[in-house]
Design brief:
The structure holds 2 protein chains of 2 kinds. By secondary structure, chain A is an all-beta fold. Chain A is built from no helices and 11 strands. Chain A starts with a strand and ends with a strand. Chain B is mainly beta. In chain B, 0% of the residues lie in helices and 58% in strands. In chain B, strands 2, 4, 5, 9, 10 and 11 form a 6-stranded mixed beta sheet that branches. A 5-stranded antiparallel beta sheet of chain B has the order 1-3-8-7-6, with no helix packed on it. The chains are: A mainly beta, B mainly beta. Chains A and B meet through strand 5, strand 9 and strand 10 of A and strand 4, strand 5, strand 9 and strand 10 of B.
């Protein structure tokens, strides 16, 4: 199946610093990537939809100036948590859609392994 | 507001049992339904994808069904094994390929 990677897998940073998380589709091109966050023992909550070459669409309640998303190529999207604070500590997961030429337009999402962010 | 509910929230069974995990959703506008497995501290592994035009999908010991009229999907796991222990999440596919997730079912299969 399609493979999605994330880097780093975990990061610890001081309050007030910015952290960049990368999401890559390794063996397919992804016109659309999604960013989720997951708190302990909770489900995934969609933060934003990232489309290659255009601005990300953020879900209600997600601060676009705090969570900067860039989807510069068909295989890479980045999430930058700016001026991170302890309440931003969470598990961040990205996913990408592998579009099947001629297939159903609603395709399977493939998820990255996640990035655990801890802000001290 | 779209809601996706998974029942039970947790399940502990002895090895070898056949299991049924339930997922229900309130919005009938569904494009697909995807079942995932998540191990602790890990990302999601896609198990089965059911398009809105389909009623079920099978992969090995797993079978997932979709009933749009009742707003339900079930994941059937045959002959459970300790290695099946994980959290199982269902994701309802909406317009724009976005997924709304249920709260998950934490499964423990005891040897």
């Amino acid at each position: 199946g399609a493979v999605v990677s994330q880097h780093p897998s975990w990061v610890i940073c001081k309050s007030g610093t910015s952290v960049k998380i990368e999401c890559r589709s390794l063996d397919f091109q992804a016109t659309t990537m999604f960013w989720y966050r997951q708190f302990p023992k909770q489900s995934l909550m969609l933060m934003a939809t990232s489309n290659e070459g255009s601005k990300a669409t953020y879900e209600q309640g997600v601060e676009k100036d705090k969570f900067l998303i860039n989807h510069a190529s068909l295989t890479l999207s980045t999430l930058t948590v700016t001026s991170a604070h302890p309440e931003d500590s969470s598990f961040y997961i990205c996913s990408a859609i592998s579009w099947v030429a001629g297939g159903n337009s609603y395709n399977e999402q493939f998820f990255g392994p996640g990035t655990r962010l801890t802000v001290l | 507001k779209q809601e996706v509910t998974q029942i039970p929230a947790a399940l502990s069974v002895p090895e070898g049992e056949n299991l049924v995990l339930n997922c229900s959703f309130t919005d009938s506008a569904i494009y697909n339904l995807q079942w995932f497995r998540q191990d602790p501290g890990k990302g999601l592994t896609s198990l089965l994808l059911i398009q809105s035009s389909q009623r079920e999908q099978t992969s090995g010991r797993l079978n997932a069904s979709l009933d749009k009229s009742s707003g339900r999907s079930t994941l059937y796991i045959a002959a459970s094994q300790p290695g099946d222990s994980a959290t199982y999440l269902c994701g309802k596919g909406n317009a724009g390929n976005m997924l709304t997730f249920g709260g998950g079912t934490r499964l423990m299969v005891k040897p």
